[in-house]
């Protein structure tokens, strides 16, 4: 088998203008930030120095794949699949993307070597006038030349020795400064199992590069070929995968661009909304502060008004007390110290004064109270276009002024909900306009005072209260409605609970003649008849009430309760009329 060397992927070529292709910028380790030293390629395609990877903290992972990890290097071989079972394995995290890396059995040093990074590091070193490169043979002196045939970097001494040997006499030697424009100057890739042999063959069965010693050893019966012969097939498969991956890159870049645009738009919108919030808040705060000042001024005015009323009442009572004391003291002194004649002479003046003092009307209770409350939930209108809340109220509910309203106030039916409304007012008879008062309601049957009916009180928050209850039995009930432990106006009162509403079994008609279709035997509870032997009522004939009515009981109200008892006195033919 002859080796056909047609450059396809790993060619050595001089680029125009001295520019190198490949990973020319990827020469520094992301951890130590220095030039790569024995760079290892992780499964996530990030490259890190071997020493840096060994310093990462490993962790234990559970492998349930049942086979070997795909992170092995060139030196690992294909093994038979192991039974699916839980296997403990050591792993690390990629320092660039935090991807989990399952280490092969050989540890970090068994990971794949990144030869592209090695080549880029060498090119980077060449651009620095050879600094950092040492001879590949003696590993001591600085490199001066490179053997293009052996692909080895040599110092001056080793270069001379290289030329003196028969096998290497005619090898091409190139100065390092002449290699700066090349894209690849990497070393030969040697077999990990046979370090003296270069990897030039490819085992198709194991899908990995091998050397000459490998194909006569462990790969003896495996199909293989030169790398230059199989690179087309494998390169094409990689290109196909690349074609499928590149659209994702473009889509992701577009998505990131859209995200960047959206993030920029988001920031602008946030700034706009934040400005609106600040403007609104500042205006609202200003309105609230202004409303606060108004409330405090209103509170101060209420204080001054109440204090003035108290002071006026105090001055009046003090003056009246002084007048009373003067009258009492003078009269007592007159009665105890005056002679009979003196008493009789002074009697007229004293009696008139005392009678006048006794007729003076005054109140022993303060003319004002301390009932001032702040109602934060009540609307207080608008201020600068903002709805504001919070009012100061000096109203106090007066049970004697509270009234009860509703159609069901004095009547109800068994097993049906009855309701009425309590309207709370203050001492001046004005509606309170707010809720929160202590309302107590009791509905008790007169014959079973130990079995009160359950009541519901709904605060409408406007000074009115909706009160409802459902009596279970007919009878007379007593209702108590109290505010602040005092009966309201009209409380207590009685309610007559009637039996459940009885529906009409008849028909609501204008006359029997019309509702029965002209039947003579049909009757009506109104008692009307018609000439010609008709037993029921007819328009304008004897007994017709002159209004639409129920045939069963004769009531005029269509929604009324039926009063027909269905006894012996019921008119004959009534049920027939009902059926019609």
Automatic annotation (TrEMBL):
Residue stretches making up the RING-type domain: 29-98
InterPro entries, per database record: Bbox_C (IPR003649), Filamin/ABP280_repeat-like (IPR017868), Filamin/ABP280_rpt (IPR001298), Ig-like_fold (IPR013783), Ig_E-set (IPR014756), TRIM45/56/19-like (IPR047153), Znf-RING_euk (IPR027370), Znf_B-box (IPR000315)
Record Gene3D superfamilies: Classic Zinc Finger, Immunoglobulins, Zinc/RING finger domain, C3HC4 (zinc finger)
Record field: catalytic activity: S-ubiquitinyl-[E2 ubiquitin-conjugating enzyme]-L-cysteine + [acceptor protein]-L-lysine = [E2 ubiquitin-conjugating enzyme]-L-cysteine + N(6)-ubiquitinyl-[acceptor protein]-L-lysine
Keyword Zinc-finger: yes
Coiled coil spans: 249-323
Nucleotide-binding keyword on record: no
SMART domains: BBC, BBOX, IG_FLMN, RING
Filamin repeat extents: 394-497
Residue ranges constituting the B box-type domain according to the UniProt record: 130-176, 186-222
Superkingdom in the source lineage: Eukaryota
Locations listed in the record: Cytoplasm; Nucleus
Stored PROSITE patterns: FILAMIN_REPEAT, ZF_BBOX, ZF_RING_1, ZF_RING_2
GO-annotated cellular components: cytosol; intercellular bridge; nucleoplasm
Record-level Gene Ontology MF annotations: ubiquitin protein ligase activity; zinc ion binding
Protein's pathway: Protein modification; protein ubiquitination
Major site of localization recorded for this protein: cytoplasm
Alphabetically ordered keywords of this record: Coiled coil, Cytoplasm, Metal-binding, Nucleus, Repeat, Transferase, Ubl conjugation pathway, Zinc, Zinc-finger
Stated family: Belongs to the TRIM/RBCC family.
Protein name: E3 ubiquitin-protein ligase TRIM45
Lineage per the UniProt record: Eukaryota, Metazoa, Chordata, Craniata, Vertebrata
């Amino acid at each position: 088998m002859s080796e056909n060397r047609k450059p396809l992927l790993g060619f050595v070529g001089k680029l125009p203008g001295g520019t190198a292709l490949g990973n020319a910028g990827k020469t520094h380790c992301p951890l130590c930030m220095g030039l790569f030293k024995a760079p290892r390629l992780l499964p996530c395609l990030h490259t890190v120095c071997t020493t840096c990877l060994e310093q990462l903290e490993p962790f234990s992972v559970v492998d349930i794949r049942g086979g070997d990890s795909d992170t092995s290097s060139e030196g690992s071989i294909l093994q038979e699949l192991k039974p699916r079972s839980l296997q403990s394995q050591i792993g690390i995290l990629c320092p660039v993307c935090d991807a989990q890396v399952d280490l092969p059995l050989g540890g970090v040093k068994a990971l794949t070597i990144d030869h592209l990074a090695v080549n880029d590091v060498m090119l980077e070193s060449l651009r620095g006038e050879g600094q950092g490169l040492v001879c590949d043979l003696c590993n001591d002196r600085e490199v001066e030349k490179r053997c293009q045939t052996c692909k080895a970097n040599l110092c001056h001494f080793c270069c001379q020795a290289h030329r003196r040997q028969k096998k290497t006499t005619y090898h091409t030697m190139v100065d390092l400064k002449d290699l700066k424009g090349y894209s690849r100057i990497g070393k030969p890739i040697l077999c990990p199992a046979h370090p003296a042999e270069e990897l030039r063959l490819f085992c198709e069965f194991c899908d990995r590069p091998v050397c000459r010693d490998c194909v006569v050893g462990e790969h003896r019966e495996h199909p293989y070929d030169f790398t230059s012969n199989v690179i087309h097939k494998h390169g094409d498969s990689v290109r196909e995968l690349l074609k499928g991956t590149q659209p994702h890159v473009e889509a992701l870049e577009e998505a990131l661009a859209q995200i960047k645009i959206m993030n920029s738009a988001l920031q602008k919108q946030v700034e706009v909304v934040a400005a609106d919030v600040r403007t609104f808040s500042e205006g609202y705060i200003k309105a609230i502060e202004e409303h606060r000042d108004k409330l405090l001024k209103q509170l101060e005015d209420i204080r001054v008004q109440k204090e003035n009323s108290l002071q006026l009442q105090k001055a009046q009572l003090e003056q009246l007390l002084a007048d009373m004391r003067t009258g009492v003291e003078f009269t007592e002194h007159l009665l105890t110290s005056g002679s009979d004649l003196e008493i009789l002479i002074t009697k007229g003046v004293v009696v008139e004064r005392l009678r006048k003092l006794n007729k003076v009307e005054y109140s022993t209770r303060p003319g004002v109270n301390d009932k001032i409350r702040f109602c934060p939930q009540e609307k207080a209108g608008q201020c600068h276009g903002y709805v504001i809340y919070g009012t100061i109220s000096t109203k106090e509910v007066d049970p004697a002024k509270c009234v009860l309203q509703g159609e069901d106030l004095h009547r109800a039916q068994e097993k049906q909900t009855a309701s009425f409304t309590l309207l709370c007012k203050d001492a001046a008879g004005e509606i309170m306009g707010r809720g929160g008062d202590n309302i107590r309601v009791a509905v008790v049957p007169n014959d079973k005072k130990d079995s009160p009916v359950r009541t519901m009180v709904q605060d409408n928050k406007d000074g009115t209260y909706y009160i409802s209850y459902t009596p279970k039995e007919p009878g007379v009930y007593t209702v108590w409605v109290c505010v602040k432990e005092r009966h309201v106006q009209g409380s207590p009162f009685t309610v007559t609970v009637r039996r459940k509403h009885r529906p009409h079994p008849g028909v609501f008609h204008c006359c029997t003649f019309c509702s029965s279709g002209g039947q003579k035997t049909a009757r009506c509870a109104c008692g009307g008849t018609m000439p010609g032997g008709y037993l029921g009522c007819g328009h304008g004939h004897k007994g017709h009430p002159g209004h639409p009515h129920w045939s069963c009981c004769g009531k005029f109200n269509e929604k009324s309760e039926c009063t027909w008892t269905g006894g012996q006195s019921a008119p004959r033919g009534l049920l027939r009329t009902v059926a019609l």
